[in-house]
Amino acid sequence: MNHGDVIISFKDVSFEYSKKKPILKEANFTVRENAKITIMGQNGAGKSTIFQMITGDIKPDKGSVNIPKDATIGIALQVMPQKYQDLTVKAFFETAFAEKKYDVDRDIKRVLEVVNLSVPTEWIVKDLSGGQQARLLLAYAIINEPDILLLDEPTNNLDTQGIDHLITFLLGYEKTVIVISHDAAFLNIFTHGVLHLDVFTKQVQQYVGDYYSVVEEIKAQIEREQRQNAQLKKNIIDRKAKVNQFSHKGGKMRRLASKLKDEIADDEENMVDIRREDKTIRSFTIPVQEFSGSVAHLNELTVMKDGAPVSKEVDIEIRKGEILRITGPNGIGKTTMLEALASAAYTGMTIKDGVRVGYYRQDFSGLDFEQTAFQALEDIKFEGDRELIFETAAQFLLTGDLLQNPIGSLSEGQKGLLSYARFVLQQPALLILDEPTNHINFRHLPVIAEALNNYEGAVIVVSHDEEFVDQLQISQTLDLEKRFS
Q1: Res. 272: pLDDT tops 60
Q2: What single string gives the DSSP state of each residue in 17-58?
Q3: Fewest 10 Å CB contacts: which of 40, 144, 432, 482?
């Protein structure tokens, strides 16, 4: 393939998971070799579906997806698949090759350096932190240096250093890269163009330019279309009034009325199907469990240093109405700590008896993917009836149809919104949040931050999303790296 050749072509592609859930309608776009492309669109618009069509995991109902037969494809998934969790790091990478590779250690060392990850290859995948697993998935995707690299929310779980290494790699990667991400600042650094998926029209529109320029172009286009439609609508109303006035009269007036009807039909046909901007979830309140006094007390910290656990005594009271942020580099043990806290298995922390705990897992592994979304809300509900479940779900853009679908069929963003809907129904006294912005559309984040600031219970949060954290009213920060330096 020569530089600049078309490497991916979607021609009149339509796809639906069911008659009630169409995803794409006659989508047309092309991607050229070596391009750096962003896919943007609302949760559920079909971004991951396009990735699955590129990899061949699913086929279009109509139309065609054309990729050169000799083009290789690598994909960095959002979450480590369960089938790899019990493998060693080395065994995990060995699954990337069709045949046994005797110099695989050299390749593993090379890609781990690219993603700035230093872990022994005999370690078990499930024992790595969320951030370490995210880097492992990226390294896996690039180990064969694919012609087409697909990245699904690659900055999730990465600390600042990890994101910097990823950007450096992508800028130097002289092959095609397609990224799904809600991290606008990250995208703007290397994007050549944008594929915009409209969740309402099921169409795909292609733009050229950096991410911020495209966002402004889309905004300007919507404003132009709104002005055009407003003028056409005014013309239609005026002409209809004249038609009503002239149609009851004879001769020339009746002929004029007929002409006006034709002009009305033309104007109605010229009304632009305006792309509706992404909806934002409505403001919401997380009710708090009635509880007096402090919620929990942290008296000991345990982290991982050089592959071994290290402990230190602390004295931290966790009170209602306060937000405690825990920080530290990938691999120090933040997720392991939060999992233990949420399950009351952490010996260094005492949660008062009777306290209900709401836990946001970064990989949503606490959700039963076989359950319907409705069942997940019904099971967590502290009080209220079915009507309350539907009303709460609607606040988070979870429609009645979506509630009847298995959780596994929801987009990652919809799973995140489902988790917040569960908090509203659970009415906890303590929220433990592990990367609570992962996969969620940036438009929703100010609403979520406001809800957490107004929440009258206690919050423990781990997040690498500094823009989101800046919106939170943090009461105290526990920096694990400084505590154990």
Answers
A1: no
A2: SSTT-EEEEEEEEEEETT-EEEEEE-TTSSHHHHHHHHHTSS
A3: 482
For residue 179, list its beta bridge partners.
38, 151
Q: When comparing pLDDT for 209 and 252, which is higher?
A: 209
- pLDDT at residue 2 is higher than 50: no
Separation between Cα atoms, residue 373 and residue 377, nearest integer Å: 6
| Type and span of the H or E element at 3 | none
> Quick one: average pLDDT of 41-68?
89
Q: Checking DSSP bridges between strand 6-16 and strand 62-66, what pairing results, if any?
A: antiparallel
Local confidence band at 211 (pLDDT 50, 70, 90 cut-offs): confident
Alpha carbon 481 to its chain centroid, in Å, reads 28
> What residues pair up with 345 in beta bridges, in sequence order?
none
Helices (H), 323-440: 334-342, 373-380, 386-395, 400-403, 412-426
CA 335 from chain centre, in angstroms, equals 19
Answer whether 418's CB lies under 8 Å from 410's CB.
Answer: yes
DSSP 309: E
Return the biggest CA–CA distance within the chain: 97
Q: Which of 27, 47, 48, 30 has its CA nearest to residue 176?
A: 30
* Amino acid, res. 444: H
CA angle 242, 243, 248 (to 5 degrees): 110
Nearest to 148 by CA among 249, 241, 70, 265: 70
CA distances to 268, 417, 431 from 361, rounded to whole Å, are 49, 12, 11
Contact between 415 and 393 under an 8 Å Cβ cutoff? The reply is no
Per the CB < 8 A criterion, the answer to whether 352 and 296 are in contact is: yes
Reduced to 3 states (helix: H, G, I; strand: E, B; else coil), residue 229 is helix
Sheet holding 308-318, edge to edge: 308-318, 296-305, 349-351
Mean of the pLDDT values across residues 39-58? 87
> Residue 288 in contact with residue 320, Cβ under 8 Å?
yes
Sign of CA dihedral 110, 188, 73, 82: positive
pTM over 0.85: no
Taking the C-alpha atoms of residue 340 and residue 352, their distance in angstroms, rounded to an integer, is: 15
* Contact assessment for residue 480 and residue 327, using Cβ atoms and an 8 Å cutoff: yes
Per the structure block, which two tokens stand in for 47? Answer: 């971004």
Length of the chain: 485
What are the DSSP E strand ranges found in 241-351? 296-305, 308-318, 323-327, 349-351
- Tell me: the pLDDT tens digits for 414-453? 999 999 999 999 999 999 999 999 778 878 999 999 999 9
Angstrom distance (rounded) from CA 38 to CA 23: 18
* pLDDT tens, position by position, 101-142: 888 999 999 999 888 888 999 999 988 887 888 889 999 999
Token output for 19: 């008659």
